[in-house]
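Weekly modeling sync, notes
Attendees: S.R. (lead), two postdocs, one rotation student

Agenda item 3: backlog of single-chain predictions. S.R. asked that every request posted to the team notebook include the full sequence so nobody has to chase files. The rotation student volunteered to paste the first one in as an example of the format we agreed on. Action items at the bottom.

Example entry:
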Amino acid sequence: MNNTMETTGLKDLRSLTSTEMQILAENLGQKKYRGRQLFSWVHKGTISFREMSDLPEVFISSLFDSYTIGRPSLIRHQKSKDGTEKFLFGLGDGNAVESVLMRYKYGNTVCVSSQAGCRMGCAFCASGINGLARNLTAGEIVSQVLEIELATGERVSRIVVMGTGEPFDNYDNLLKFINIIHDPLGKNISMRNITVSTCGLVPKILKFADDLPETGLAVSLHAPNDELRRKIMPVAKSYSLDQLIPACREYAKKTSRRITFEYALIAGVNDGDKELKELAQLLRGMLCHVNIISLNEVNETGLKSAGRRRAEEFKDYLNEHGVPATVRRSLGQDISGACGQLRLETGANS
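Predicted structure, as returned to the notebook:
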C-alpha cells in the first residue's frame, strides 16, 4: 500500500512528526529548532515554503529537492441544511475519501477517514461496499483536518476517526496521526478531544490502552450476541463477544476512561425486545456509554432504520437498567454524511 507521495519522489512533510522534522533539519545542516519551526508552519496550514518567513533561504531551497507539503485535491464540498459539511478529497493515486465537519456549541468536530475503503464488510455500512483500496498515510489523515480548516477558515477542536476504514487496521499510521495532531508545536488538539472507533479488533484495543490511554475509544457493537453479530459484522467471526467484552472491560480498567458502544438499530434485525434485554445484561456494570443510532440508511444494503421512537425506547430501557445511553443526533443525512454513509470513491469518477 504505497504512500501517494512516493510517485513524485518527494516526502510529505504532513506525515512527519516534530521529532522527525528536527532530524530532517539536522540532516540538511540546520539546527534542530529549525525543524520545530518547520513543523509549526506546516500545521498552521501553510502551503508554500516561501511563506515560511523565519526559515533561512538555504534551508528552504534544500527542502524543494526532497520534500513537499502533500495536499489532496478538493473534488466536492457539500453543505447540509443542519450546518454539517462534507468534503470529498482526491488522493494522488486516483482514490478519494470523505471527511465531515460537524458544528456543536462546544466547537467544531471533524470526522476523518483512515483508509481508502474498508475490508471489514459490515452489512449496514457504505464504507466497505467497494472493498479496501489501501491505507492512508498519517499525512493524508492530517490533511483532512488542515484542508477543512483552510476551506472554512474555522478552527477544529475535536476529531473523531470514524470515517471510511477501520482505524485499527491501519494502526501505525493512526498512532502517528494522533501524535502529530496532538503535538503542542502544531494543532495541539487534546488527546481527550480525539476519539477512535473500531469494529472490535481485540488485540489492538488492548494495545491502544497502553499506547494512547487518554484518547477516547468507541466500539461498534450493533448486536448483543455472537450469532446475530456474525450475520451483520464479519469481524465477529474472528473475535467473539467473549473476547471483545473482556477486552473492553480491561481497556476501561487500564485507562479509567468510559468506552462508547455504538448500536445502530436495524428494523427487524437487532431492534427486538430480546436484543434489548441481552444488551442491557451484556454491558451492565461496565464503565461505558451506549450511543443508540437510528440507522442511517444506505441504498445498496437494503436495510431499514427502526426509527427514532424505537431508539428512544432502547435508550430509556438501558438507562432504567443501569447502562447509560443516549440517542445520537444524525447530522448530515441529507448529504449522505452521517455515520455509516461515508464511502470510497475515485477521483476520476467524481
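Discussion: group reviewed the output briefly. The longest helix spans residues 138-152.
Action items: rotation student to repeat for the remaining queue; S.R. to check formatting next week.
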